[in-house]
Amino acid sequence: QIFQPLHTLRNAEKELLPGYHLFEWQPALKNVSSSWDVGIIDGLSGWTSSVDDVPADTIARRFRYDVALVSALKDLEEDIMEGLRERGLDDSTCTSGFTVVVKESCDGMGDVSEKHGSGPAVPEKAVRFSFTIMSISIRAEGEEDAITIFQEQKPNSELSCRPLCLMFVDESDHETLTAILGPVVAERKAMLESRLILSVGGLLRSFRFFFRGTGYDEKMVREMEGLEASGSTYVCTLCDSTRAEASQNMVLHSITRCHGENLERYEIWRTNPFSESADELRDRVKGVSAKPFMETQPTLD
Known about the structure:
This protein is an alpha+beta fold. Helices cover 30% and strands 24% of the residues. The chain folds into two domains: 6-215, no CATH class; 225-285, no CATH class. It has helices at 6-16, 56-59, 65-75, 77-86, 174-192, 218-225, 243-248, 259-271, 278-285; strands at 23-26, 40-42, 60-63, 98-111, 125-138, 147-151, 162-168, 195-200, 203-216. Strands 1, 2, 3, 4, 5, 6, 7, 8 and 9 form a nine-stranded mixed beta sheet that branches. Helix 8 runs antiparallel to helix 9 (278-285). It is globular.
């Protein structure tokens, strides 16, 4: 494998990069530019206004989300075919009805400052957004239940986790994070309303995607949902408990916080329709303080 002419290795490398495989979305993705050079793109691609403090071209690099997912599925091509064979499914009839569950993760990478900084002035913290394909299932014609044909055996391993976006930004910098992840979210939203047509095992097959934001730690969930930081009196990211209430009641909690509700509360916080004092207003919105921008599903990992 190793002792091959350079051009052969180059071609092998190209296959591993997103953007190599042909695919189609039906219907075509909305809000996703078809003209971007597919491959590694500027992290702010798809965002119109730039982030002022730092030259935009230095701040982030990413893959286009749909292209990265295609590349991940092609990596799993043999597993998908093997899964169909093991379940005794005739692969020529299994061309539609595939469902892919994707786990999203995002976390700060700490201090990455240059020791002898001569490059452009960029924040000295970095954040990585990545995803893992958790499972692929298919619903056969006339069958009620979906049959799982691929399940990631090591879902928390570095090996199954695929980087989508690397950015120079502090994870507490809500505005810059919004500017960079905004386009990623737009692409994800577009993919939810469409299906991917991709050749797997020599036949065109159609895939639908479901995304679960279960790879965020508490700090990032608070950041993504625009909640007050971890020192807040509102201790929980899923319900409205205060510290005092939580210490009294350790059992009866219902999940009351969802992205939509957080957005509504943010609007109340922003407009203060009842002309309340800061304390009353804060009590009304239960610790929502900055604009939430990414939907996180309250699912346990």
